[in-house]
Amino acid sequence: QVQLVESGGGLVQAGGSLRLSCVASGRTFSNYAMGWFRQAPGKEREFVAAISRNDGIRYYADSVKGRFTISRDNAKSTVYLQMNNLKPEDTAVYYCAARGGVTARRSNEYDYWGQGTQVTVSS
Known about the structure:
The protein is mainly beta. 0% of the residues lie in helices and 50% in strands.
């Protein structure tokens, strides 16, 4: 089992920045590819970004490319999502997820999920 705990969400004005963190425990963090997903009210959960086990590969959704950066620190068992130039449409609950394989973009390919952290962007 892998336990994931997100933090760093909050309320920010449009154009602002936030950095989300997700701390993992329970298994060897470097064995897992990590992803960030988000879910807005009334919408399906959508892919945001993903990073491979050794940080050699990073994927982004088109909607966040150039604004968000995913990174990881295997020594700290933590994955980050730096979010810049936030827009009201980025408002959602953000989830981190882990999978014991190669990097993936589909939520059903991930094995473990955190509880989520709310990000609200005001206009």
